[in-house]
Design goal:
Elements (H helix, E strand, L loop, with lengths): L4 H12 L1 H8 L7 E3 L3 H8 L4 E3 L3 H5 L5 E4 L6 H11 L3 E4 L2 H18 L3 E2 L10 H8 L5 E7 L2 H13 L3 H11 L7 H4 L2 H15 L9 E2 L7 H9 L2 E11 L4 E11 L11 E8 L3 E8 L3 H18 L30 E11 L4 H11 L4 E6 L2 H5 L5 E8 L2 E2 H12 L9 E5 L4
Parallel strand pairs: 1-2, 3-4, 4-5, 7-9, 9-16
Antiparallel strand pairs: 6-8, 6-10, 8-9, 10-11, 12-14, 12-15, 12-16, 13-14
Helix pairs in contact: 1-13, 5-6, 6-11, 8-9, 14-16
């Protein structure tokens, strides 16, 4: 259902690698019917041997079809069609992270009732097999945290800002011209797309329901070139990360720009590539890297799900890998923490008057809040504003503290007469 960029890639890779797929799956996998509103384009993509229809429900009604691949996207008709396919007893494969992040619990419960599988490897990080790693490869571990670059558009923008010293607005236009960013890039640049994926990974890591509505989401539109430059001088790079951690109090689930030490492998992931770090108690830290989007990388993940279903088609449903890694009756109700309860460290940039006592006032406020300082970088005024400048940048790195305390301290610093602009706060993760 839907044969655009990803769908045509699925068809092409299935045809090209059919002999290899049969050897792996034990049987052939054949596209028997395609539904797309643009039937002429769809027929051109699949050739005369495949039936093409404009009504997706014709696919669901076809009793010869075992698996429905949903590549329409969005929350609307896609949800109805997926639930109807499940009700008709068909397995479903989807790349629709938005649908599963918002309605996953309902969809997985319906699939369990009908004894069918829902494959969604392509919904997170494109061609990287992170879903299979979380559900199967790391199943011996108590997973402690995940941190991922899971949106290629924003990583491309941040890479270009760092390499060329350009501001966000300029690079966004370049990304749109090159096809990395949509005409309406809101879901990408505001962090929503990454939060959809982080919510799915969090559920599989910790055995909790998918809880996208409880994620903290902050995008990259407010980042300035100077912050990327200062971070570099301090030994860090700024990446938009999807982060989920298990703590004694609950689960952290957040997406925001993050300073990462430049010696970490993930800090060196450039362009539109994706990477996910997973830390388990037994395995330690693992890293998964590759293309997070594109026709054939995403098709690779879709077809991996098709092969799994072909292998397990006749298996007892109770013996299959659970959709969210944990048995449905063993899911936890551990709460998702509010952002104010999260513990992390910070980069702060203050535009301040170039006069005596400014640093002392700022550090005094942090000390009273119990926030310790890791490093301070104070720029000479003429470096920032030119000869004769009366204001400068003060950059502070802190050690870990509770975000609520940092919020309170920032409020007190912001009203100082010597603080001349809105304070920039970017969270920092060592990922050690």
């Amino acid at each position: 259902m839907g044969i655009g960029t990803v769908g045509s890639g699925v068809f092409s890779v299935l045809q090209r690698n059919q002999s290899e797929i049969v050897r792996r799956a034990g049987r052939g996998i054949e596209i028997a019917m395609v539904a797309d509103l643009d039937t002429a384009r769809a027929q051109a993509a699949v050739g005369p041997a495949v039936q093409v229809v404009s009504d997706a429900r014709a696919v669901i009604a076809n009793s010869d079809i075992d698996i429905v691949i949903e590549l329409i996207g969005g929350y609307g008709i896609a949800k109805q069609l997926v639930l109807e396919a499940i009700e008709a007893g068909k397995h479903v494969v989807t790349a629709n992270k938005a649908l599963l992040a918002v309605h996953g619990s309902e969809i997985f419960a319906a699939a369990s009732r009908k004894g069918v599988m829902v494959g969604f490897e392509a919904a997170v990080a494109g061609g990287i097999p992170i879903i299979k790693s979380l559900r199967e490869g790391l199943s011996a571990n108590r997973i402690q945290w995940i941190a991922g670059i899971i949106n290629g558009t924003t990583n491309f923008i941040l890479s270009e800002m760092r390499d060329k010293g350009l501001d966000f607005d300029v690079v966004l236009k370049q990304a749109q011209a090159l096809g990395y960013a949509e005409a309406d890039p809101t879901f990408d640049i505001e962090g929503v797309d990454a939060a959809h994926k982080a919510a799915l990974m969090s559920a599989m890591a910790f055995g909790v329901p998918v809880q996208f509505d409880k994620a903290y989401v902050e995008g990259i539109a407010q980042l300035g070139a100077q912050d990327i430059k200062y971070a570099e001088q301090l030994g860090y790079r700024i990446k938009l990360l999807g982060i989920t951690k298990k703590t004694d109090k609950g689960i952290e689930l957040r997406v925001h720009p993050t300073l990462v030490p430049n010696k970490r492998l993930i800090a060196n992931v450039e362009g539109a590539m994706n990477a996910v770090m997973v830390h388990g108690d037994a395995v330690g830290t693992t890293l998964y890297y590759g293309k997070g989007a594109g026709s054939e990388p995403t098709a690779s993940a879709v077809i991996a799900d098709l092969i799994d279903i072909a292998r397990l088609h006749n298996a007892d449903p109770a013996q299959r890998v659970p959709h969210l890694a944990f048995q449905p009756d063993a899911m936890s109700n551990m709460p998702v923490l509010s952002m104010g309860e999260v513990v992390t460290s910070y980069y702060l940039r203050l535009k301040v008057a170039d006069e005596a006592g400014v640093l002392a006032n700022v550090t005094s406020i942090l000390a009273k809040a119990g926030i310790s300082i890791d490093a301070v970088l104070q720029r000479e005024a003429d470096e920032v504003g030119g000869e004769g400048a009366t204001q400068t940048d003060l950059i502070i790195l802190t050690h870990d503290c509770v975000e609520a305390k940092m919020n309170e301290a920032l409020g007190q610093m912001q009203v100082l007469k010597t603080v001349l602009a809105t304070i920039v706060r970017i969270r920092k993760e060592e990922l050690a």
